[in-house]
Design brief:
Jelly Rolls; mainly beta; single chain; eight-stranded mixed β-sheet; seven-stranded antiparallel β-sheet; globular; 225 residues
Amino acid sequence: MGALIHALVALLLLAAPASAQWNQGLFQRAGSAPTGATAWDLANCGLTLSSGNTVATAGASGTFSNCRSTTSRTGKLYFQLVEGISAFNYDWAGGVANASYGISGIDIGGTVNSIGCYDAIGSGPAPLYFNGTNVAQCSQSAMTNGSILEVAVDTTAGKYWSKHTVDTLWDNSGVDNPATGTGGISLSFASPFFIVVSLKSSAAATIVPHPTGCPAPSGFACWDP
């Protein structure tokens, strides 16, 4: 009888639409389930995780804690991070880093092995940091609670682009464009890369490795297949 029930369940799942067979909230996409869906890595995270480890939240402390994704990738990749920020400036940062970046160490963008976009509430374009230096602007608009940061990275060419979903300009530049390989921030650290955030003062970050419809620039793939 047990075997018959299992067989009937399997038939029902096969008959259901793919989107109904697999619905994991932020990781949902039409068609079929991606393999190796990315979340925040509990073993490499100094933040509190929730919602299936897709949301990382800092405590009230004014000291940064870091967290990285479960998977690292190479290639031409795209992902999004949802910004949950408080009333403080510079309490949220997101970007990429390699395995040499210490999760318990300095916040993202403060080393040669990471690059990160920081919030600058109400003060215009957000700053992008690499090796402790503000090297560019990573958004056209000011960050607000709920802003969505888009990141495109080409590990072969060693380039990085970012903007908010509401922005028309990548890197707040009239030239930079990942689809054509134009501009971007040159990366000197080796891939593969992890998605990384640094948070403090109760800030939160939601990882979205495959946004609905995968609005990646031409030639780029979403972080999760």
